[in-house]
Amino acid sequence: MTGNQIMFIIFSAIIIIFSILTVTSRRILRAATYLLFVLISTAGMYFMLNYEFLAAVQLTLYAGGIVVLIIFSILLTSHIEEKFETPALMKRVYAAIASIIGAILVCTTLLNYTFTPGTETAKDVNMNLIGNSLISWGEQGYALPFELISILLLAAMIAVIVVAKKVKTK
Questions:
Q1: Which of 11, 34, 138, 148 could make a disulfide contact with 22, Cβ separation 3.0–4.6 Å?
Q2: Measured between alpha carbons, how far apart are the two ends of the chain, in Å?
């Protein structure tokens, strides 16, 4: 077993375990912390695939931006000890059924697809091309996706504040 395979197994295990902990945790701060581990491990996968730019965006935008925003919103609204409600039994059953169907669909798709290695050589990194692509709106530009991501961040911030400001009914 090579080092890449070992790292892939470690990152995969971290992503699976902390994803499950994220959606099953009843404490909102713990769920946000578990989500941070999932996003960092996803960036590790991108680094393994030599997608350094995408990994850096993953770390700065998602792990650094959204999760920190969620944690600050929780801390600023003084709901750090708040627990989510326990879902009803039927909601748990439906969620389990949906999860099992999704897992079966993913497994059958992965097992039926024949993966072939690429034959192209890696292209040289040209910083001028990357810089022009970041500020371009054209076909090879990234300005529009970054604008859409800023709208996503705004929506995430509003959603986090709404969730964190939820009034308790006694």
A1: 34
A2: 56
Burial zone of 144 (CB within 10 Å; 0-12 exposed, 13-18 middle, 19+ buried): exposed
Smallest Cα–Cα separation from 84: which of 20, 170, 164? 164
Pull the structure tokens for residue 40. Answer: 């960092």
Exposed/middle/buried for 112, CB within 10 Å: 0-12, 13-18, 19+?
A: exposed
**What is the H or E stretch that residue 35 is in?**
helix 28-48
- Which pair of structure tokens corresponds to residue 113? 């697809």
- pLDDT at 71 (0 to 100): 73
Nearest to 50 by CA among 143, 123, 119: 123
